[in-house]
Amino acid sequence: MRVAWFAVDPATVAWQRLQQEMPTGVVSHRTAASLHELGDLDADVVELTATRRIRLSLPDVTIHRGSLSREDWQSSTNCR
Questions:
Q1: Domain limits of the chain?
Q2: pTM, whole model, 2 decimals?
Q3: How are beta strands 61-65 and 46-50 bridged, if at all?
Q4: What is the mean pLDDT of residues 58-72?
Q5: For position 7, what pLDDT does the model report?
Q6: Residue 40: strand, helix, or coil
Q7: Alpha-helical runs (H) found in the chain
Q8: 20 against 47, higher pLDDT
Q9: HSE on the CB side for 78, CA within 13 Å?
């Protein structure tokens, strides 16, 4: 999950990302639900939502494209 999150915007270090008003991408969908221990969804792939089209050559990573606002995401210390 961390590798995929870093790969979405490799030019921006983690502390800068956490201070951005509009991040390039965030952990989302089943991955976010698993991270927050919501439900019993199987997070067999890492899912992220990005504000622009991004292609990664990482196995088991899905990137969704969508708009994000500050209310749509939060920082979490539970990242694995």
A1: 2-10+25-69
A2: 0.79
A3: parallel
A4: 88
A5: 92
A6: coil
A7: 2-8, 14-19, 29-35
A8: 47
A9: 11
Pull the structure tokens for residue 69. 């606002």
Classify 71 as helix, strand or coil: helix
What token pair was written down for 59? 């196995």
**pLDDT band at residue 46, thresholds of 50, 70 and 90?**
very high
Query: 29-67 burial by CB neighbour count: b if 16+ within 10 A, else e?
Result: bbbbbbbeeeeeeebeebbbbbbeeeeeeeeebbbeeee
Q: What are the contacts of 61-69 at 24+ separation with CB within 8 A?
A: 61/4, 61/7, 62/29, 63/8, 63/25, 64/28, 64/29, 68/22, 68/23, 68/26, 69/22
Q: Which of 54, 75, 74 is nearest to 64 (CA)?
A: 54
